[in-house]
Structures are given as C-alpha cells and as structure tokens.
Automatic annotation (TrEMBL):
Annotated keywords: Methyltransferase, Transferase
Originating organism: Streptomyces camelliae
Keyword set includes Methyltransferase: yes
InterPro entries (UniProt xref): Methyltransf_25, SAM-dependent_MTases_sf
Gene3D superfamilies in UniProt: Vaccinia Virus protein VP39
CDD domains in the cross-refs: AdoMet_MTases (cd02440)
GO BP, sorted A to Z: methylation
A single MF term (Gene Ontology): methyltransferase activity
Protein name per UniProt: Class I SAM-dependent methyltransferase
Source organism superkingdom: Bacteria
Length: 251
C-alpha cells in the first residue's frame, strides 16, 4: 500500500493521534507517496470533462494539499490559479513541487480554512479532490455557502465522486472498518482527527448544494466505466452559481 518512500507505520500512528492540521503537517513530505493523494487519472479525467465548460480566468483548488489539483487547473485557467489549505506543511511541499507552465497562469498559495475562505467573488472555477471526508455532514451547508460566495456569477464548483462499493466487495468492508476505527479513536482521544469515507453521500450533497443556491449537473467520467447496473463508476458534480436577475444587485 505504501512504497519505500512513503511513511512508516510509526509515522502514520503519530499522525493519526494528532489533530487534522498537525497530522498533515507531519505527513506532507511523504504525502505524494501514499494512496491518499488523488491519482493522476482522476485529475486528468476531471480536466477533460471541465475543458468544454470553459474558458476560465481564475481558479481555486479547495484543500489543495501538495498541489496536484493546482497543476490540473493550470491547463484550464488563463489568468490565475490559487491553492488554499490549512496545513502549512502541505503548502510548503506544494510551493516546491508545482512549477507553472511557461506563459501559463500565475499560481498563488494561501493558508486558510475552507469554512472561512478569505476571498469574495474571485473565481470562475473552484475544484476539490478527496477532501470532503474531513468535514462532518453538519458542516456541508456552511462549506457550500463559502464556495458559493467566492464564485463569480456563472462560476462553477466541481468535484469527482466515486460510486460506493457494494457490500459484496472487500472495499465496502474496508471503508466501513476505517470509519468505525476513526469513530472509536475520536471518542477516546483528543484532539479529534476528522476523516470519514462514508459520510459524504451523493443524495445529501446534491440537496445541500441546492440549498446553497447552486444549479447542479452530474457528468459521467467515462474513463472509469460503469457498474453492473449501468450506472457510472465515477461522476463529476458540477454546481453552477446562477447569474443575478436583471436589475438585481450582485453581492
């Protein structure tokens, strides 16, 4: 599961007994050698799906980690790409490893909390990859309201979702077991480490996006095929902030 350059068991244990922020600061130098980093094929598939919806001037990678999503955005945005994350360690790695293409958009890194973003109507595109397990279901309304507020009218918030494994698959029990262990850990140890795989349910997400004022579309990601029932194995959620009505004042 982890290559020779990845973290040792002891390092993972120390991370798991830390806060989320401190844990990622510790993991940052080896994060790209773990399975937690979003695979390139997911990033490339999302970029292909978003390209026809552009052009985009300014983009934001929400919870950017070591910057893999920022690299994907540099091929979609003309003027600027910003990565925001609350882990100083992850941002430090991102600054070192991401090299914007010549003639491409400017890249900026901001340390901040996704639940209190330091921007106002600044972007045409916001993306996020693999970060939503760090937010409890009750936090989604506030999180989506924040994203809505940093998008310009007509801007889009996009993120991939994978179909959950069925109970007949080993992955189902692996994720169930992981979440159970994390719940026990958080009941017995402080500070909590919020990371759950089975709390970000598509139906709940679509409802909360609608409540936040988004118009939502689902785009299959064909590279990942379909399940036995014909449903896509992976989808791209694209939530669009509506244009203000004629005569209204945009806030």
């Amino acid at each position: 599961m982890f290559g020779p350059e990845g973290p040792r068991l002891r390092e993972l244990a120390v991370q798991a007994l830390s806060s989320v922020e401190r844990g990622y600061d510790l993991l940052a130098p080896k994060f790209d050698h773990t399975p937690f980093r979003t695979p390139d094929e997911v990033l490339e598939s999302v970029a292909r799906a978003l390209a026809p919806l552009g052009p985009f001037a300014d983009g934001l990678d929400l919870c950017c980690g070591t910057g893999a999503g920022v690299e994907a955005l540099t091929g979609l945005c003309r003027r600027s790409v910003t990565g925001v994350d609350f882990s100083a360690g992850m941002l430090e790695v991102a600054r070192r490893r991401v090299r914007p293409p010549a003639g491409g958009p400017g890249v900026a890194w901001v340390r901040g909390d996704a639940r209190a973003l330091p921007f106002v109507a600044s972007f045409e595109l916001v993306v996020s990859f693999g970060a939503f397990g760090h937010f409890l279901p009750r936090e989604l309304p506030g999180l989506f309201a924040q994203v809505h507020s940093v998008l310009r009218p007509g801007g889009r918030f996009a993120f991939p979702v994978l179909a959950p494994p069925r109970p007949t698959r080993p992955g189902y029990w692996l994720l169930l077991g992981f979440d159970a262990v994390m719940r026990v850990r958080n009941a017995l140890w402080r500070p909590p480490f919020v990371m759950y795989y089975r709390t970000f349910r598509l139906g709940d997400v679509l409802r909360e996006l609608g409540h936040a004022g988004f118009e939502v579309e689902l785009h299959p990601l064909p590279e990942f095929g379909r399940r036995d029932d014909g449903s896509p194995r992976a989808r791209l959620v694209v939530a669009r902030r509506g244009q203000p009505a004629a005569g209204s004042v945009n806030s």
